[in-house]
Amino acid sequence: MRILMLVATTVATDTRVLREARTLVGAGHEVHIIGRSVPDTFQPDPGITVSSIGTSSVFRPEGGQSLAGRKLSPPMKLARWALLPQHRRSAFGRWADGALADSRGRQFDAVHAHDFTALEAGATLADERGVPLVYDSHELWTGLPREYRPTPLQDRRERRVEQRLGSRADAVITVGDGVAGALRDQYGWDHVTVVRNTFPLNPGKPDVPDEPTGFVYAGRVAAFRELEAIAAASHLVDLPVTIVGPADDTWLGTFDPGRATVLPALPLDEASRLMQANGISLVTHSDRWANHRLAQPNKLFHAVGLGLPVVATDTGELAKVVREHDLGALYPPGDAAGLAGAMRRVVHDFQRYACNVEAAREALSWDADAARLVAVYARLFSGAAGTRGEG
């Protein structure tokens, strides 16, 4: 069958979207993805095609320079903080309008809407064509951090829209048991299936060093990632610390990394080699927002797939998985000294934690999650769209 995916990201670095698309192609389907400002150089895997809608808003034309990363005067900072919600709403709205126009010239048998930003457009297309709608909630939308002025009216509207359209979706999938439980409690949904952000299991034993040579944080470099604690802890441990990933340049401009080295984003393979060369992965995030407490970050499953012990924040679903499989050491959120102590504990007991990670790799790999995703589509295309999801 032909599956139309809608996602307001560049696609090229969206590992969840690409992993799901590859899995569905492997199950015999065709997948077309409509993304947002997809790089011209991006080449998708066979069986996947991609088209792109540009990034613009009433405040900035396509290709216009962003204020992110620029040094702003206090009045400009205030204006940006105040106007950012309108800019985001306009930018995502224009993308959705473009995605609708692109989609109407295509043939598809199901619509897969990635995250709330694609949900309204996805529901419109599914209704127009009379095809199934899958809502893929990458996080708890109502629990996301807000780095702009409060928007209570907009928040209430988005909650009503998500409840209405998610309730009419033929299937809802999400990234973990915590988010699934929150969606069930918040909206009364009984058709949620968990498809985690795990990684494919490579054959053979991972290339893990006999002893660690450093710590690597590989992920988004921005607020609410506990990077301030990592920077402070870098002064308290002997081994070097590396921070690598796509950055919020505005936030990074005021960040003091301490003794840590900050690197720009790397292709997945290069980031993986960097992590394996160092031996220990830092899987950190804040517990300030509901979404942080419910999240099972990609970073965790990436580290496990590479066979690496972790140092993780003791919060919510993340800590639950680390404890269940004894994958490494935990520290209290915001506690740099506690983080440094956890880092030292993993160094001291590295081989034991590495053995635990190896034992957990299969259970925490993409094979099980891919099977759940394929099963969702099997139900939809077998005429059993009324069959509800499973955790």
From TrEMBL:
Keyword Transmembrane: no
Domain Glycosyltransferase subfamily 4-like N-terminal: from-to ranges: 15-197
Signal peptide: none
Gene source species: Tessaracoccus flavus
UniProt keyword list: Glycosyltransferase, Transferase
UniProt xrefs under SUPFAM superfamilies: UDP-Glycosyltransferase/glycogen phosphorylase (SSF53756)
Record GO terms (molecular function): glycosyltransferase activity
Protein known as: Glycosyl transferase family 1
The UniProt record lists the keyword Transferase: yes
Listed Pfam families: Glyco_trans_1_4 (PF13692), Glyco_transf_4 (PF13439)
PANTHER family with a match to the protein in the record: GLYCOSYL TRANSFERASE GROUP 1 (PTHR12526:SF600), GLYCOSYLTRANSFERASE (PTHR12526)
